[in-house]
Structure formats: C-alpha cells, structure tokens
Amino acid sequence: MRRVLVAVIAIFVAWSVMDFVIHGVMLRSSYAATASLWRPMSEMKTWVLYLSVFIAALTFAVIYSRFVSRKGISTGLQYGLLFGLGTGVSMGYGSYSVMPIPYHMALTWFLGTLVEAAIGGVILGAVIRER
Question: Whole-prediction pTM value?
Fold first, then answer.
C-alpha cells in the first residue's frame, strides 16, 4: 500500500508538470486562438482539475498494482503505452471529432497523453516492482 501511495504522488507530480508544459507552454497560443471554447481564466476550476489528475493517477496505479502480475519497469512502460494509446486517442481525436479545435491541438493532446502515460508507467514499474 505504501508503494502504491508513493507511486500515485510521483505520477501526480509528473503529470501535473507535464500538463503545465503541454497546455501552458506548447499550446498556449492555440488556446488563445480558440478562447471561445474555454472558460475564462477567472472561471477556471483549478481544484477540480488537480483532483481529476489525482484520481486518474490513483486509478492508473491501482489497476497496475492489482491486475498486473509481472511488475517492473519494462512492464510498467508497456502498461503506460497501452493506457496512453487508449486514453490519448479519446482525448485527442475524440475531442477533435466534436470540437472545432486545430488539428495540431488534437495531435498534441494525443501525443502528450501517450507520453504522460508512458512516463507514469515507468514510474509505476520503478516503484511497484517484483522483489
């Protein structure tokens, strides 16, 4: 249980930092260009955002710890890549299919989600591994 909690905290921090780089730096101009689609900064629900990242990290770690039998960095990376592929397609291209966002935003959401999940998987494999 302690290793799962350490992994959740490490993944939460890693994903939060990567989210800032992806959304706050790389896509800043794209968000500005599509401002009519988003809440104004003054209305953003930051606590909901961080709570959702924490719950995602918790779920990601618990699924790995309970349902993956061979634990290690390689397995964690594979788990992260599969998880990232599934969630990234939904995040990037699912959103692109129903929202008037530029294609490069959808691609960045997809690739960003894939990379975040892969790094999360490596963290899992390093923290929660076979003895």
Answer: 0.92
What are the boundaries of each domain within the chain?
Answer: 2-31+44-127
Classify residue 41 as exposed, middle or buried by CB count within 10 Å of its CB (0-12, 13-18, 19+): exposed
Helix (H) or strand (E) holding 43: none
pLDDT of residue 37: 94
Q: Distances in Å between the alpha carbon of 78 and those of 5, 40, 72?
A: 21, 38, 10
Predicted confidence (pLDDT) at residue 131 exceeds the cutoff of 80: no
CA dist., res. 23 & res. 97, Å (int): 19
Q: Which DSSP state fits 37? A: G
**Residue 34 is inside which H or E element, if any?**
none
Q: Do 84 and 17 form a contact (C-beta atoms < 8 A)? A: no
